Amino acid sequence: LWNYNDTKHTxxxxxxxxxxxxxxxxxxxxxxxxxxHDKRLPNDYLQVLTDxxxxxxxxSPLDFLEYRTKIGDRQEYxxxxxYKLVWGNFEPRRVIQVWKKKGNHPKTFLG
Length: 111
Prior knowledge:
Blueprint: E1 2-5, E2 10-13, H1 21-27, H2 29-37, H3 45-57, H4 61-78, E3 84-86, H5 92-101, H6 106-110
Parallel strand pairs: 2-3
Antiparallel strand pairs: 1-2
């Protein structure tokens, strides 16, 4: 998860969130639409995701459209700027150092 400061143009890492594949693809809607248009995902997948979102959030397809529009507008605004990443305690090199100190190999952590 990321916290954004749209005045200072910073993007701060806030933690992890475990979600199902469909929720992940809703979160990355623009990329998912691209994958459908490029035939890497089935043609009906956007409807599957719409139905999934509405079921999980107890809302209508119109609510989802309004949500997507709001998020899309915000992303379009943010794309006009370069944001500085602020990792805090999750700076990747620091995470790997801590992982190594615990006797683990970084590839185990990174997948």
